[in-house]
Request: fold
Amino acid sequence: MPTIPTAPQTQGATTLRQQYTWLALYFALNLALTLYNKAVMGKFPFPYLLTGIHTFCGSVGCIILYYRGSFTLTRLTDREQLILLVFSMLYTINIAISNVSLNLVTIPFHQVVRAMTPFFTVIIYVVFFQKTYGTMTYISLIPVAAGVGLATAGDYYFTPLGFALTLLGAFLAALKTVVTNRIQTGRLRLSPLEILHRMSPLAFIQTLIYAYFTGELSTLKTYAADGSLTRRDVIALVINGVIAFALNVISFTSNKKTGALTMTVAGNVKQILTIILAIVFWGLNVTPMNALGIVLTLAGGAWYAKVELEAKTKRQQGERENSSQRRR
Reply:
């Protein structure tokens, strides 16, 4: 006979507190890595190799944690191994598409299209997983996306290929977030550390291939030979990789605990927080329209959080009522 938790309200509150804690950690490390990447890229202008450093540090970090007993490995079938291989390719292709599209469109246009990621997430869930959302959830996404558009308003220029690639990049970002959540909560139910342990080496090899074909590896040899890469730079790159590893662990865990749609909304809010930091640290000039966009996105993010909280509370209440009826 099913039992009813003795203190359901406390358990629900604890779950929500944990979700907000993980999201807060995600914001903090994501913003820290964004600022760190900006500083590092000034001395190390190799985006694919920087991604390779991130995945290499992820591989090493997971190996250390594995031998310390922090997680165990699941026995996977050949089909499940193939799923993870495809997932690692999705991870690196998403980065590659984003980098290529940035050369074909302006940054404001790129940010506006990427702000549509939550809508792509909803479409993926509705079409492929038959998931439904409340009307207020759909409405709350509008100010989040529109606010990013206003906050980054500027020179909107794009080529037809750039538009297509940027749109594809937003879709792939949504797909990556959904797949990450499904791998952790679906039939596989892999832990964040196990996913990183299995995916990071594959992604590392793929980023090296990208770096080779884009000429970054050959350019790095010249860059290092003329003394441009100092020991201090190497230490900074290692620290950057460690932060990226920590962010990946927290990002995957947050995705598992809060859901894919919440993570894409959080990504939009993170863009706005990055703009705010740019105003504080680099004196970025904003127009009244930009300021309106910042307020709109933050308000939309808070509204979405409120809608999701009410929906989860309603679902938990329904589950308790169903359990009570079955017990009778």
In short: Residues 188 and 214 are 35 Å apart (CA to CA).
